[in-house]
């Protein structure tokens, strides 16, 4: 069944996700961190739900993704996988749960698959993580790579918003990820022309965030696209709703009606 047909109720598998590229179907990916939102995203027809380590920022209120633990990713991954009936569920491996060695990557990913019900994991890296990607692929654990701006490298780069422009490095990273056995690659914050070249040169689907329209799919952080993170306005973001404003208005009205006695009415009460 096709990855891009929300009408179907059958599960999007990793092979379905990969096949979308050769079939010319763009892939729509969003993040989710809990049961409620994962269910809403799944019902809206996304191809994949990513349990991103952006959890650290959007859910936990931290400055970076570095403090997020594997136990936390597994806790949230299980909530999301249980709510998601149709989309592919991908769980980010957090900082320092795979960089030590391929053996550590296997142990961390193994826990994700055993304990969450996810269909794939993601890690940040290309050339530098090719041995980890190879180890996971050899164990039949589907792995997505992530090249360009890598938030887990913020201490070297200095900030999380730096557009990555080294074309030779980016192309080498994408090629290495494919050669090592990644089933897909996230391209984050890179020039559109480089993303176009990479998407043409690799057979696996590229999923862009701030990488332009020539990628094989797109990913956005759900609270960003729904207008819940109002201070965050990078160029790549499009807001499809203004939920923060909706929440302020609705809850403000509730507060006022409780104080005035307008809520609850007889209709809201039991005799
Ligand atoms: N809420 C949220 N949304 C995200 O997309 C996201 C996270 N958190 N946390 C992890 C990473 C970090 N990301 C970021 C963070 C900042 C920019 C940013 O400020 N970009 C600006 C400046 C680019 C520049 O000129 O250097 C932009 O306009 O794109 C982009 C991506 C993407 N990821
Ligand atoms: C922005 C996406 C690609 C991500 O890695 C995350 O949400 O953590
Ligand atoms: Mg991430």
Jot down its keywords.
2 domains, binds 5,10-methenyl-6,7,8-trihydrofolic acid, TIM Barrel, eight-stranded parallel β-barrel, single chain, binds 3-methyl-2-oxobutanoic acid, binds magnesium ion, about 270 residues, alpha/beta
Please explain how this structure is put together.
This protein is of the alpha/beta class. The chain has two domains: 14-240, Phosphoenolpyruvate-binding domains (TIM Barrel, Alpha-Beta Barrel); 242-271, no CATH class. It is 41% helix and 13% strand. It has eleven helices and eight strands. It has helices at 14-22, 35-43, 55-58, 70-83, 102-116, 130-138, 154-157, 167-180, 192-201, 222-225, 243-260, and strands spanning 27-31, 48-51, 88-92, 120-122, 143-148, 184-188, 206-209, 217-220. It has an eight-stranded parallel barrel, surrounded by seven helices. Helix 9 (192-201) links the parallel strand 6 and strand 7. Helix 2 (35-43) packs across helix 4, helix 5 crosses helix 6 and helix 8 runs parallel beside helix 9. The protein is globular and about 70 Å long. The structure holds 5,10-methenyl-6,7,8-trihydrofolic acid, 3-methyl-2-oxobutanoic acid and magnesium ion. The site of magnesium ion has 4 residues, from loops.
CATH topology-level name of the largest domain: TIM Barrel
Low-pLDDT ranges? none
Overall geometry comes to globular
CATH superfamily of the largest domain: Phosphoenolpyruvate-binding domains
Q: What is the number of helices? A: 11
**Helix and strand sequence:** HEHEHHEHEHEHHEHEEHH
| Hetero groups | 5,10-methenyl-6,7,8-trihydrofolic acid, 3-methyl-2-oxobutanoic acid, magnesium ion
Largest sheet: 8 strands, parallel, barrel
Binding site for 3-methyl-2-oxobutanoate: 53-54, 92, 122
Binding site for Mg(2+): 53, 92, 124
GO biological process, one term: pantothenate biosynthetic process
GO molecular function, one term: magnesium ion binding
């Amino acid at each position: 069944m096709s990855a891009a047909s929300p009408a179907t109720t059958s599960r999007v598998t990793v092979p379905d996700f990969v096949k979308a590229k050769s079939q010319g179907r763009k892939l729509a990916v969003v993040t989710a961190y809990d049961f409620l939102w994962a269910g809403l995203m799944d019902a809206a027809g996304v191809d994949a739900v990513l349990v991103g380590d952006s959890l650290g920022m959007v859910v936990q209120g931290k400055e970076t993704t570095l403090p997020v633990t594997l136990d936390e990713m597994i806790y949230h991954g299980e909530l999301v996988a249980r709510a998601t009936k149709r989309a592919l569920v991908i769980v980010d491996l957090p900082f320092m749960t795979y960089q030590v060695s391929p053996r550590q990557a296997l142990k961390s990913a193994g826990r994700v698959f055993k304990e969450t019900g996810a269909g794939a994991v993601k890690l940040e890296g290309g050339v530098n993580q090719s041995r980890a990607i190879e180890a996971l692929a050899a164990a039949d654990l589907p792995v997505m790579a992530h090249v360009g701006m890598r938030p887990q490298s913020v201490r070297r780069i200095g900030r999380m918003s730096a557009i990555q422009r080294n074309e030779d490095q980016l192309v080498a990273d994408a090629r290495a990820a494919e050669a090592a056995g990644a089933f897909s690659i996230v391209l984050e914050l890179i020039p559109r022309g480089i993303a176009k070249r990479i998407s043409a040169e690799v057979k696996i689907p590229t999923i862009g965030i701030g990488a332009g329209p020539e990628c094989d799919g797109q990913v956005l952080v759900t609270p960003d696209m729904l207008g819940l993170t109002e201070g965050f306005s990078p160029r790549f973001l499009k807001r499809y709703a203004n939920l923060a404003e909706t929440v302020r208005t609705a809850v403000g009205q509730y507060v006022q009606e409780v104080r005035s006695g307008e809520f609850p009415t007889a209709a809201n009460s039991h005799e």
